[in-house]
Design brief:
mainly beta, four-stranded mixed beta sheet, three-stranded mixed beta sheet, 9 strands, about 0% helix, about 50% strand
Length: about 80
């Protein structure tokens, strides 16, 4: 059984790395099920090799059963 490709959009990029919000690792509720007023947001970082142009990066996920990830670096990605 192959896993579905998960699509993410990079939120920020600079000469060293880019990052994206991981909804699998972020915590939106407490263990008792109550919704957090302020979610604990988890971002993952990957190297950008100084390449700031728009593109799609492919990575393998290590998060809670996700498979392959396509990370889109596009016009909405903030350049720092």
């Amino acid at each position: 059984m192959t896993k579905e490709i998960v699509k993410k959009i990079a939120t920020h990029i600079n000469n060293k790395q880019f990052k994206y919000l991981c909804s699998s690792c972020s915590e939106f509720s407490y263990k008792n099920g109550k919704v957090r007023k302020y979610p604990k947001l988890i971002y993952h970082l990957h190297g950008s090799e100084g390449f700031l142009e728009n593109r799609v990066e492919n990575r393998s996920s290590h998060c809670k059963g996700e498979g392959e990830i396509e990370i889109y670096i596009n016009d909405s990605t903030i350049r720092e």
